[in-house]
What does this fold into?
Amino acid sequence: MFLWLLSLACLSPLLAQSIWPLPNVFEVTSQGTTRNIAPLLKYSTLNSENKEIEINTLTRLYSRYNNLIFSRATGHNGRNKDAIHSVKVVVVDTSEAYPKFDTDESYSIAIDTEVTIKAQTIYGVIRAVESLSQLIEFNVIEKKYEVLNVPIKVEDAPRFNHRGFLLDTSRHYHSVATLKKLLDSMAYNKLNVFHWHIVDTQSFAFESTRYPTLWNGAYTNAERYSKEDMIDLVEYGRDRGIKIMIEFDVPGHAASWCVGIPEICPSTSCLQPLDPSTNKTFEVIDGLVAECTDEVSGNSLFPYEFIHLGGDEVDTTCWTTTPHIDKWMVENSLNASTTYKYFVEKAGQLALEHKKSPVQWVEVFENFGSALDKNIVIHVWKDPEIINDIVSAGYKTIASSYDYWYLDHLELTWETFYSYEPTKFILDSSNNQYLIGGEVCMWSETVDDSDLFATVYPRTSAGAERMWTNIDIVANNDMDDVLERLEVFKCLMLERGIGAAPVTNKIGRFQPREPGSCYVQRR
Amino acid sequence: MFLWLLSLACLSPLLAQSIWPLPNVFEVTSQGTTRNIAPLLKYSTLNSENKEIEINTLTRLYSRYNNLIFSRATGHNGRNKDAIHSVKVVVVDTSEAYPKFDTDESYSIAIDTEVTIKAQTIYGVIRAVESLSQLIEFNVIEKKYEVLNVPIKVEDAPRFNHRGFLLDTSRHYHSVATLKKLLDSMAYNKLNVFHWHIVDTQSFAFESTRYPTLWNGAYTNAERYSKEDMIDLVEYGRDRGIKIMIEFDVPGHAASWCVGIPEICPSTSCLQPLDPSTNKTFEVIDGLVAECTDEVSGNSLFPYEFIHLGGDEVDTTCWTTTPHIDKWMVENSLNASTTYKYFVEKAGQLALEHKKSPVQWVEVFENFGSALDKNIVIHVWKDPEIINDIVSAGYKTIASSYDYWYLDHLELTWETFYSYEPTKFILDSSNNQYLIGGEVCMWSETVDDSDLFATVYPRTSAGAERMWTNIDIVANNDMDDVLERLEVFKCLMLERGIGAAPVTNKIGRFQPREPGSCYVQRR
It folds into this structure.
C-alpha cells in the first residue's frame, strides 16, 4: 500500500509533495486519494489516558497554523462530506515547562480519513503541526485546500538536539519584530536554538538591571533590548519550541562595554580585551550571567542549560601595552597567553557557579586543550578537523565551520550548507555522542532588517535539514530531488512572508537573475 | 506657543519627531510636555451630530494600529493619571463606500490632554491614524509610550488625488501575502493607488471566468491569482484607503495570452502584439474589462474609476510579417501605425463602454496626439517634457518618468525620487489641474518576494512625500532635514516588518556597507 518516497516530481500534479527538513519516515500512497481539507481545522488534544485536555501552548499553535495554512480566500467553506475537518493530537507529557537540551521532539502523523498526531511532548506536537502544514496545499484552480496521495504516514525525530541559528544583533540592531519573525522562520525549519550574539565591539544593546549604564553602549536610545523584550522573546521562542542561548563574548569583542563601565577596559585608547587585572571585570560578567540565569520564582531569564561566553579572536596587545595590566601580569607570573587562559576559565567558572554549562569558541580549546574544565562546551567556527580532538578529549562540541555554515560568507551556496557533515572528521564513531549539534551563523556587518532573510534563507534551510534528518537519508539523497524540494520550501517561505532568496543563486542574497517562476529557476 | 518645525534634530531627546510624508501644517511645542500614552488607546468615533457610532472599517483600523503602535512589552500598563488613554474621532461622512478618485483624505489632529482627530471621510481618518502612530514613540529606556512636545497640531490633505505604486506581478509572481504587506506599507506612506500590472509577456496569472484557459499562461498552477484573491485584495486595500487599478497591457506585452487563446495571437512563432484582424481579440479584451468593471450587485471587481490598458512598446513586426494580418491591413487601408491606433482606440473605447476611464501609456499620445478620445488618461513613463503637450491638449495625465520614478533603475537614489516635480515642464500653471498624480513603478524582472521591499523602500517613500505634501513645503525643505526624517521613517518601517534598504545606498537594495546604527548611516 505504501510507497517509499523515491521521486517527488511524479507524485503531485501541482508541486513536489514533501516536508522540509525531510522526515525519517515519509510514506505517501502513490496514486492515492486527494483529500480536501476543510478550513479551519479543528484540533483536539488528548492525554495518554485518551482524555481531552486544553494546553495553552497548543491552543495558540493550532490558531497560528490555521491562519498560516488557510491564508487564501476560497469563497466557500470547503466542507463536503469527504473533507478532513479535524486533527486528533495525542501527547504523553502535557507539561508546558521550558524545553531542555534533550527534550523529546519526536512525533508521528497519520493522514487517512482523519489526521492523527502523536508525540511525547508538546514540543513534538509543534514539530508535527509544522510538518502537517507543509502537506496541505492550496489548489488555486479548484479553490480548495487538499492533501495529495493519502494515506500518508510520517514518523520523525531530530538527529541532533542542538540545532541552532546564530544572529549577531550588535553589528546591526535587529528589531524585536524581526527577531520574532526570525523565530517563526526557525520553527518552519525545525531549528530549536536561537544563539543570540547580543553584544560585540560595536554596540551593547542588552539591558542590565545591575549595571544600568552598560546599554549606554547601544547605537541610539531606540536600538536597545529591554528586559521585557527579552522575556517576551524567550516566551515567543518557547511557544515555538525554540530556546534562546544568550552570548556575552569576553574578553575580546567587548569594546562597547567601555561606554557604560570604562574601568573594566584597559584604557580609553585601548578598549579590548576587557581588563583581567581588576575584579570589577569579573563582577560585571558575574552580574550579567546572574541576571540571565538565576532563577526568579522558578524561572530564569534565559532558561536554556547553556550560556555562551565567547572567548574568540582575542588580541592581547592591549594587555601587554597597558602599563597597569602589564604590571599585574608580571606580579602574578602571567603572560598574555596564560592571562587569556585565566580569563576564559574564570568566566566559564562563573557560568558553572550559576549552574549553567558555558559554551566557548574553539580558540579556548586550541590554546588549552584538555586542560579545560570538562563542563565547557566547545563551539567550532574554524576548520572542522579539530572536532576529532575535542570529542576525543571528552568535550561536548557544536559545529559551525566557517567554510560551510557561515552565512556572511556569501560565496557559500546552499549545496555547501547542505553537504557539511559535522561528524566527518570524527575517527571513532563512539565519540559522535559528544557532537551535540550545530549552528549556522549570521554575522551582521552587512546585514540589517532589510537583507537579513534573503541572506540567511534558503541556505539556513539546507543546514537545518542536515541537522534534523537522519544521516543515512541525507547522505543518500539525490541532489536534484533536494533542489526541487528546496525550491518548493523556499516558495512556501515566501508565501509566509519570509523573504528567502532564489535557491540557485551563486552568492547569498543575490536577486533573481531574470523573469521566471518561483519554483523553477535557472541554475 | 507653537513653533513652526524648523530643525527636527533639536526637538527630541530620542529621534527626529516627525510624520512622513510631511503634513501641510505640523506644529509642535518646543520644550512642550512629554505625554505618556497608555496602551491600548481607546478610540471613540463620533458623527457630525456628536453621536457615538460604530464604523467597521474604523474598528478594524483602531485595532490594527493598537497592535502596530504598542508592539513592545513594557511590563506595566502605562496608565498613570497624566497619560493619554483615548482618541476622539469626528468624521462627517460615515460612508464605507469604495473610495473614489477625488475622495476627501484631509484630516486634522490635535494632541493636548487628549487626542482629537477630525476628518471629512473615513479615508481621512485612516490617514490621520497613520500620522498619529508616527508621533507615538516607544521609550525603551523608560519602558513607556509617549508623545513629545505636546501640544501638537496637524492639518493635512494630499496634494494629488492619484498617488500610485505600480507592481509588475508577471515577470515574477508575488504572493498574495506579499501584496497585502505591500498594501500595508503603502498605507504607511499614504499612497492610495495600487497599479497592478498583472499580465505581461512572461505570465498570465489573472483568473478570467469568461476565458478560463487564459491563466494557463501562468508560470505554474500555484502562481495564479483567483477571483477570490482579487476580491480579498480589493477589500484589503479599501480598508486602508487604497484603490486597485488593474492593467491589461495590450496589444504588446501580451505573449502570455497566447497560451490560453492562441487564435488572438498572430502565429505560434510570432506571438505579440495581439492580432488586430480578428474580432476575437477585442471580444476577449472586452470580456476581461467587463469582468473587472461591470457591477454585480452594486459592486464591480475593481471599482476604481480608471482601468489601465497599456499600449506601450508596441513592436508591430509580427503584424507586417504575418500574412493574414498583413492582408487584413491592406484590405482595410491600414498600415502598422494606423493599425496600432485602431487597436488602442478600440481598447480605450471598450473601457469607456464599461463606464471606466482608460489609462494608456504615453506612446498613444506620442503617436496620435490630440486625435485621441479626450477621456483617455495618459500615463507618462518616458521623458517628462511631453507632459506639457498632454495637459495643454486637455488630457489628464499621470507622471512616472523613468529617469526619476522607476524603481528598477537601481542607480536612481532616494534624492532623485524626492526631487522629481511632476509639474516641472507645465508652462501654463492653469493646466496643472490635468496632472492628476503620479506613480512610482516596480518592474519585476529581477524582483521577487525576496528583494521587493529592499528595492522599493525607502525610495518609494521619497516619491510618496513628493506626491502628498504641498509643493511649497517640499520645494523649500532642507535636504539634510529630509534625510534625517527619512532615516527615522525607514527605521519605523523596519520595525513594522517592511525591509526598507539603507537610505544612503548609492544603488537600490544594496546591503548596509558596514556595522552601524539604523538611524545614522554613512553617506
Notes: Chain A touches chain B through 70 residues (CB under 8 Å).
